């Protein structure tokens, strides 16, 4: 057990050595910011998947599937209003996609498909022509193609095996862009960069780095940090915007992030960012384990007697306390904090409880995010 703890502590220390706080190389501007005009747009549509092997919607429980099937057949010249359709090879689905920036007409994008009714599987299905519209109600793409479903299920009389999700899939390059978005790099005559993680220090550093490049290339500064998120760049007269943006994206900047600790109580995951500090604090950790075991005793009467069988309950309760050590922790950086937590020898769930208690005591100088 001690050897396993030593190995875990060594691995944790190795991870700390490569933490962001110990890195010296800067990040490219293209990795920490994006052009405001170059934004994604979400598309959505309602469609039908056909060709299922009896795993589609039951039209009695999903009447909208039957209505959609009748409407589609009537558009194809097949009259079905007077007939009862009872096909199990069709399913109603929602189709979603993301339209990338500067997508031109005729280009293809991937689409995601998810069942709306009570279909049990979309494996082997074919998505029929589905229009995809944006928030403005305009149609920007049309999707159609064979579904790729990663999940599967197998069922017998005595057992059932399920893996993944069989009621959702995707159509790689299944949508064709029919309408282009406006392709204007500039906004009010200037390029607008948006930081992925808003921070005033990083925004100022990005503007200073761009201005240093601009003074060397154009002889005048071009950038200004508007706030913690936006950095504006005014292109010089006659400059090629695409080439200017390509040069700006390759510039490197030392980013700054606020101190933050993220814990996930469900999975026991703990992520401690750089610049996390704690004031001097004493921590005591101990766990109480209570085990309750029932051992009923059965007492039977003698043969040919008028007695009755009696069950006498017997309960054994055992309590055990582990840990209980007190450690004094004070650290100016990530390495010291992790070393102090390892010194107590607690598991991830205990570390989460300790971090929450330290935050409540006002000794953890970082934002604690509990997921």
From TrEMBL:
Residues 1-25 form the signal peptide. It is found in: Bacterial flagellum basal body. Pfam families: FlgI. GO terms for biological process: bacterial-type flagellum-dependent cell motility. The keyword Signal applies. Keywords: Bacterial flagellum, Cell projection, Cilium, Flagellum, Periplasm, Signal. Assembles around the rod to form the L-ring and probably protects the motor/basal body from shearing forces during rotation. Belongs to the FlgI family. The basal body constitutes a major portion of the flagellar organelle and consists of four rings (L,P,S, and M) mounted on a central rod. This is Flagellar P-ring protein. The gene is flgI.
